[in-house]
């Protein structure tokens, strides 16, 4: 459920409520810890809602998550997401060092 620019906390709660009755196995990905979606969803957790909440969402995380579901693999998508973070400057420096 994407959050549109003009939407706020009430919209996030409404979108969550719209899907919560359709599925009891909910995983929520948000981009930033401390951002509005993260804060709203964290509050819902504190109020007793039952879902998995992950922050730091990125494309490798989402692809790994979907792949794990489709292929029945372990759900280690959060580990794979961390592995996908690469400081390219260091990587290029390491390649240059090997060439010398």
Question: Overview of this structure, please?
Answer:
The chain is built from five helices and two strands, in the order αβαβααα. It has 100 residues and is mostly helical. Strands 1-2 form a two-stranded parallel ribbon. Helix 3 runs antiparallel to helix 4 (77-83). The longest helix has 13 residues, at 59-71. The chain is elongated, with a radius of gyration of 18 Å. The mean pLDDT is 85. Residues 1-85 form the PTS EIIA type-4 domain. InterPro entries: Bacterial_PTS_sugar_comp, PTS_EIIA_man-typ, PTS_EIIA_man-typ_sf.
Distance between the termini: 50 Å
Mean pLDDT: 85
Helix content range: 55-70%
Structural class: mainly alpha
Total E-strand runs: 2
Oligomeric grouping of the chains: single chain
Question: What is the strand content?
Answer: 5-15%
Tell me about the largest β-sheet.
2 strands, parallel
- Give the spatial strand order of the biggest sheet: 1-2
Order of helices and strands: HEHEHHH
Please report the number of helical segments. Answer: 5
Shape: elongated
Radius of gyration: 18 Å
Unreliably modeled segments: none
Pfam family, one: EIIA-man
Protein name: PTS EIIA type-4 domain-containing protein
Domain PTS EIIA type-4: 1-85
Keywords: Transferase
What's the SSE blueprint?
Elements: H1 9-20, E1 27-29, H2 36-46, E2 52-54, H3 59-71, H4 77-83, H5 88-99
Parallel strand pairs: 1-2
Helix pairs in contact: 3-4
């Amino acid at each position: 459920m994407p959050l549109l620019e003009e939407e706020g906390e009430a919209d996030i709660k409404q979108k969550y409520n719209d899907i919560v009755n359709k599925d009891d196995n909910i995983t929520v990905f948000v981009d930033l810890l401390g951002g509005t979606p993260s804060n709203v969803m964290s509050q819902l957790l504190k109020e007793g809602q039952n879902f998995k909440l992950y922050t730091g969402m990125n494309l490798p995380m989402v692809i790994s998550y979907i792949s794990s579901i489709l292929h029945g693999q372990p759900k280690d998508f959060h580990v794979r997401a961390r592995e996908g973070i690469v400081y390219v400057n260091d990587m290029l420096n390491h390649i240059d060092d090997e060439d010398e």
